[in-house]
UniProtKB/TrEMBL annotation:
Region Disordered, residue ranges: 86-114
N-terminal signal peptide: none
Pfam families: Aminotran_1_2 (PF00155), GntR (PF00392)
Domain HTH gntR-type: 18-86
Keyword field: Aminotransferase, DNA-binding, Pyridoxal phosphate, Transcription, Transcription regulation, Transferase
Protein's name according to its UniProt entry: PLP-dependent aminotransferase family protein
UniProt family annotation: In the C-terminal section; belongs to the class-I pyridoxal-phosphate-dependent aminotransferase family.
InterPro entries hit by this protein: Aminotransferase_I/II_large, HTH_trans_reg/aminotransferase, PyrdxlP-dep_Trfase, PyrdxlP-dep_Trfase_major, Tscrpt_reg_HTH_GntR, WH-like_DNA-bd_sf, WH_DNA-bd_sf
GO molecular function per UniProt: DNA binding; DNA-binding transcription factor activity; pyridoxal phosphate binding; transaminase activity
Keyword Disulfide bond attributed: no
Species name: Paraburkholderia sacchari
Length: 506
């Protein structure tokens, strides 16, 4: 007993900011776990230990109570407090796996991760930086009407309904679903009722939910080649086998060999192909819908930023043409408002409404009803429409400034692709250029772009950089592009073979 008291007294630091109670608890836990206090050892009484350590008896009592609650000690009235036997069960630890278990190899010899987990990390496309020139796919959050949002939010909090503070009902806040159904019918020609809308945290969760409910591990999915790396990662992590389908100027263009093997799911971006920007033609849309009807294929239509179209009205959705209820329409509000909102939606066929409502509640236990209520009022009061209209004009101006900077520096040596809509365009590079190397070098120089290479599953067909303009203030576009241009010239042309600009050519 004296040894324990002396050891504890030597370890306690009464001048420390850490409370004596916490120090004593951790020291005794350590002594028990390391075997310094063997199982069955009787601990000194609380009065005796408190006296030896010069601390309050209540402190020791609290420590003993906590040790007992966590299973470190056993207390018996009239007998005392004893160290419990917490050693691992030797029979369980030393048990040999049976022949079946021994026959299964380690899932990933390279480390502790699963094979699909390792693949997810190895092929991750996420960037350490999510803001600045020329980050693609990011809106200008500085232009968001935060005062309006704050006012709506404050009004709701002043007389908050308790139902807004619990889990979300299946599908989400009904007034928001009603507001979204009205908006989508007008803005995107989506045919839906409020009941068909499921509120999610964004495109990733929408795709994940659809895949979990409509496909099994090992099923095949058509994805556009190239396609958005995030959607590809969600599908692969769910155990789906990907079949890359090439795109041309009319969008998805399956080959005869592809058509002979119908997939379970086809993931498409028909209104603004990501990342190349082309629009799926009406003939291709009708062909895809008919193929899906005949072969029971589920189409996931990702309509992530089609409201931002320059020079023409936003195009109608693929879902609006679907007469067979084979299209799951998914969209995100992050691109329209601000990514940190983490709110998206999906429109599902009427016969699947109950399935998806149950699925989203069972898997994700949704909440954020206050935010959903704020968003509902934001939409119903007309703020969303006016904000999108204003940002479309602003982004159009920034897009043109960046295109002008490209033309002035490179003339027609580097093509600009997919600039008719969205928040980015692809700046083409010469075939001999490694766009991953250019991306890394520009990142070191303080400019963010994405390599087109990371969007291909198979052999890369084009070299280029995804170049975003939405989150770059007008006055920063020219100097930021000058930095990017120097990197491109160094890696794509070399110091002695810079392209002739229009001014030089003149």
């Amino acid at each position: 007993m004296v040894i324990l008291s002396d050891w504890l007294a030597a370890q306690l630091d009464k001048a420390s900011a850490e409370p004596v109670y916490r120090q004593l608890l951790q020291l005794m836990q350590q002594a028990i776990l390391t075997g310094q206090l063997a199982p069955g050892t009787k601990l000194p009484s609380s009065r005796l230990l408190a006296g030896d350590l010069g601390i309050a008896r209540n402190t020791v009592l609290h420590v003993y109570d906590q040790l007992s609650a966590e299973g470190y000690v056993l207390s018996s009235t009239g007998s005392g407090t004893y160290v419990a036997d917490t050693r691992p069960d030797s029979a369980a630890v030393g048990a040999r796996p049976d022949a079946t278990t021994r026959a299964v190899p380690e899932p990933n010899p390279r480390g502790d991760m699963s094979m699909r987990g390792q693949r997810l990390i190895d092929e991750a496309g996420v960037s350490a930086r999510q803001w600045g020139a020329f980050m693609p796919g990011v809106p200008d959050v500085a232009e968001f009407p935060s005062r309006t949002w704050s006012r709506l939010q404050s009004r709701l909090w002043k007389s908050v309904n308790p139902e807004l503070l619990t889990y979300a009902p299946g599908g989400g806040y009904r007034p928001l679903r009603r507001a979204l159904s009205d908006y989508l019918r007008v803005a995107r020609s989506v045919r839906c009722s409020p009941d068909q809308i499921i509120i999610t945290t964004g495109i990733h969760q929408s795709i994940d939910l659809a895949v979990r409910l409509l496909a099994d591990i090992g099923d095949r999915a058509w994805v556009e080649e190239p396609c958005y790396w995030g959607a590809r990662s969600v599908l692969q992590a769910s155990g789906i086998k990907l079949a890359p389908i090439p795109v041309d100027n009319e969008g998805l263009n399956p080959r005869e060999s592809d058509l002979r093997h119908p997939p379970r799911i086809a993931l498409v971006t028909p209104s603004h192909q990501y990342p190349l920007g082309m629009v799926m033609s009406l003939a291709r849309r009708r062909t895809l819908l008919e193929y899906a009807r005949q072969h029971k294929v589920w189409i996931i239509e990702d309509d992530y930023d089609s409201e931002f179209r320059y020079g023409s009205r936003p195009l109608a959705s693929l879902q609006g043409l679907d007469d067979s209820d084979r299209v799951i329409y998914v969209g995100s509000l992050g691109k329209l408002l601000f990514p940190g909102l983490r709110m998206g939606y999906m429109v599902v066929p009427e016969r699947l409404v109950d399935v998806f409502r149950t699925g989203v509640s069972e898997l994700y236990r949704e909440g954020q009803l206050i935010q959903q209520a704020v968003l509902a009022e934001f939409i119903m009061d007309g703020y969303l429409t006016s904000h999108v209209r204003r940002m479309r004009t602003l982004y159009g101006e920034r897009r043109q400034l960046l295109i002008d900077a490209v033309t002035q520096r490179f003339g027609d040596a580097l093509p600009v692709m997919g600039d008719e809509a969205g928040l980015h365009f692809v700046l083409g590079l010469p075939d001999h250029c490694d766009d991953r190397v250019v991306t890394a070098a520009s990142y070191e120089a303080g400019v963010i772009v994405r390599p087109l290479a990371s969007y291909y599953l198979g052999k890369q067909q084009r070299k280029g950089l995804l170049t975003g303009y939405a989150c770059v203030a007008q006055e920063n576009i020219a100097p930021a592009f000058a930095t990017l241009a120097r990197v491109i010239e160094e890696h794509a042309f070399g110091p002695k073979s810079k392209p002739r600009t229009r001014e030089r050519a003149a």
